[in-house]
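Board notes (copied after class):
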Amino acid sequence: MISVEQALEKILSNVSVLEPERKPILETMGQVLAEDVRSDINIPPLDNSAMDGYAVQWDSIRGATISQPKALKVIGEVAAGCISDREVTPGTAIRIMTGAPVPAGADTVIQFEDTDEEIRKGKSLDEIGIMRELVKGSNIRRGGEDITRGSLVLTTGVVLRPQEIGVLASLGRADVLVIRRPAVAVLATGDELVDVGQPLPPGKIYNSNAYTIASQVRRYGGIPRILGIAADESQDLLEKIILGMDSDLLITSGGVSVGDYDIVKDVLAELGAISFWTVRMKPGKPLAFGVLTRNGRKVPHLGLPGNPVSSMIVFEQFARPAILKMLGKKNLAKPTISAISESRIENRDGRRVFARAIVRKGDGQYFARLTGPQGSGILTSMSRANALLVVPENVATVEVGDEVSVQMLDWREED
């Protein structure tokens, strides 16, 4: 058996960052930018109003109070997206909406609440009373204060979130160059499997692994392609594996332990070399990895265990970082925190244990407790968990109150 770190190093050394593609910005969520983005415009393009109110000259409102308002002549109105053809002069004001360009001559915007407009409702608004002296320049957003023409706005390697996509839209960019998403083929193996939506004969189980793995692929940015179920027969398995070799990564589940019908390793040997097939971890000891070769094309392959929990945990430790690397991301590690264990855990065989846990926060620190029975076939233990509590190989027992390392699956709070 090799260590988790050794296994991960071998896997990552055999996957590469994929090539870029140009895509509509709305389709790039979570992808890595593959070009520097500079601005051709100022944002905002012009000085504009941050409030609904009146554009004025500050000298005209100096000393204004509620008891002694300054009366100004209203000479026009300007809405967002329009430019006023009038100029603000001493003693005048232009009614202005949020986002509208500030008219020539104005240096301050007074919000409606600091005028007597409410009192004047129903009357002519050819005059307005200013009831507060603001600081000169108040409520004006300066042209280019966010982005200036020619500036570098987003750099190669940035992961695109909604805010970056919004920035691209503000620049008028309809598309952008990003590292493409990896296509990941998913194949479940075993005569005992039946696909969802079909009657369940005696002795059979539904093929849950393909759907959990495909969902994990999608969650971390890949494009899953479910190949179906391969029987415990070499030719069928070989044919289905070959179908998956037009993908960037092939993931199989089942058929990698030491049973008589565990034939995945044998079939893989016909197509390439197996780097390893056991890892010092629990659950998830049986894990095959190698690179398949056919017609000059090389495809990395991960053979996950058949037990559903083992399959998911092995995916988190190895397939997830491989997919993230292909996407061009730099931070491949799971989010990890320290917590106080609320459960006793035994580690009897010197493997690294990944226990399903529920993390909660209280009194300024995190606490982690097991979800219940930890059998590798109890998929609901993953459904209940928001984290994996990690017990190192050299730790025989975790006692209640011990500080432990916890990998977060998500940040869902305990119900």
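Comment from the instructor: Residues 48-141 form a domain with the Molybdopterin biosynthesis moeA protein; domain 3 fold (CATH 2.170.190.11). The chain has a mean pLDDT of 94.
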